[in-house]
Amino acid sequence: MVGEQFSNYRCFNERHRKRTIRARIHLKVDLRSTNAR
Fold it and tell me: Which domain of life is it from (predicted)?
């Protein structure tokens, strides 16, 4: 059962990795914009 959960977790990460990277980039941009102000 643990193996199945781990495999599902990996699939979930693979599916949402791009989304998380995009969110991180947006966070960095937001930080820069706030600092510029």
Answer: Eukaryota
Nearest CA to 25 out of 36, 13, 14, 17 is that of: 17
Tens place of pLDDT per residue across the chain (37 aa): 567 877 877 877 787 777 888 888 888 888 787 777 6
Residue ranges with strand state E in the chain: none
Of the candidates 18, 10, 11, the residue with the CA atom closest to the CA atom of residue 26:
18
Cα–Cα dist 25/29, whole Å: 6
